[in-house]
Amino acid sequence: MIEAVKFWNEPNNKSHWDLELDPQWRAFSAMVRAAAPAVRAENPALTRVLGGISPIDPGFMSHLVGMGTMEDLDAVAVHGFPLDWNHWPLDAWPERLAEIQAVVPLPVWVTEVGVSSFGAEEVQAFGLARTAQLLTGRSPRIFWYSLYDLPRAWPATTRHREAEGSSYYRHFHMGLLREDGSPKPSAAIFPAYTPEFGICQWFHFEDHRLDDAVRWLRRLGVRRLRTGLSWADSFRPGADAWFDRQMRALEEFELTITFCFTPEHRGVAPHHSSPPLEAGEYAEFCARMVKRYAPGMRMAGSGPSAVAPALRLAGSA
After folding, report:
1. Using one digit for the tens of pLDDT, what is the confidence trace for 61-80?
2. Cross-strand bridge partners of residue 80
3. Radius of gyration (Cα) for the chain, nearest Å?
């Protein structure tokens, strides 16, 4: 069951949004302002969430507020990895949340938090336990990143690549499970933090891990799952069949679905992080996915470009 949709992923991170093509995020803001009412028109009950920011930057959030980006949203989201990439200590999590809560009048979700086991699996287990102490009860939704380690044959989604040094390789060891599917020590303690903690797990096109992932999510006591449907993948042959299979497999969970990744032929530049040529095309994709997988009572006279008074669902967050 889809309970929420997210518009993009880490828009203030150059790995996910081309800051040179859109340095003031005007195109990003226009895209969100088109997509949010399009989703609401299809299903007003869905919670609409701004793509999680990384790094956590109150100045960036204030900038988006000033452009009206939040006017048709119900929540915003942050991502944090203080033991791996951020320049702040793990115990600063409450301060980081408070910084965003001070500038945005919406609930703040934590849609990615995690610790790599690149250095030691025991460090990941410690980080999980301490993160749970710091965040439980402070945010309406918390998603641990991730269930699986990233297969070494796949590239991490980052513009920095090996130039990051050891930081790049931390991307491949974020899972509770190793690449071969065997559990790490953190997997043994994760059930102590569910159902408050959900899991963020991205599934690649025709991902071979899907059915095994469902079995592990049940075993870990996970009720809430964050994943994505790729706009870029929607142009692949067989895309609808893969999306159908993915959504059927995951229907027992409370899903937060992220819509992201620009198709190369529909971007200002041929890259998944590019602003789209037309903001309305992204909105149409979001609306089509909601109509297909989370149909609601459609608003009379509405369409993908319709704009109606904002419906706040903060109480359901």
Report:
1. 999 999 999 999 999 999 99
2. 113
3. 18
Work out the average pLDDT over 50-68.
98
CA distance 163 to 159: 9
Q: pLDDT-derived band of residue 161, with 50, 70 and 90 as boundaries?
A: low
Tokens 């200590």, residue located? 89
Do the beta carbons of residue 117 and residue 123 sit within 8 Å? Answer: yes
What are the beta bridge partners of residue 145?
200
The single residue listed with the structure tokens 């590019």 is: 274
C-alpha angle 32/37/42, rounded to 5°? Answer: 125
CA dist list (Å): 204 to 114, 228, 229, 264, 271: 20, 9, 9, 17, 17
Q: What is the pLDDT of residues 256-295, one digit of tens each?
A: 999 999 999 999 999 999 999 999 999 999 999 999 999 9
Q: Return the ∠ at Cα 32 (arms to 233 and 8), rounded to 5°.
A: 40
Task: List, in order, residues 6 or more apart from 132 with CB less than 8 Å away.
Answer: 192, 193, 196, 197
The burial class, CB within 10 Å (0-12 / 13-18 / 19+), for 270 is exposed
**Phi, psi at 167, each rounded to 5°:** -60, -35
Is the CA virtual torsion 141, 77, 226, 245 positive or negative?
positive
Q: How many CA atoms lie within 13 A of 71 on its CB side?
A: 13
Amino acid in the structure at residue 251: E
DSSP-derived 3-state class of residue 7: strand
Q: Which two tokens stand for residue 283?
A: 């909105």
Q: Tell me the mean pLDDT in the region 225-249.
A: 98
> Of 288, 206, 198, nearest to 249 (Cα)?
206
Please state the pTM of the whole predicted model: 0.91
Give the sign of the dihedral formed by CA 87, CA 93, CA 97, CA 98: negative
Pick from 180, 224, 220, 227: nearest CA to 203: 227
Q: Is the peptide bond before 195 cis (omega within 30 degrees of 0)?
A: yes
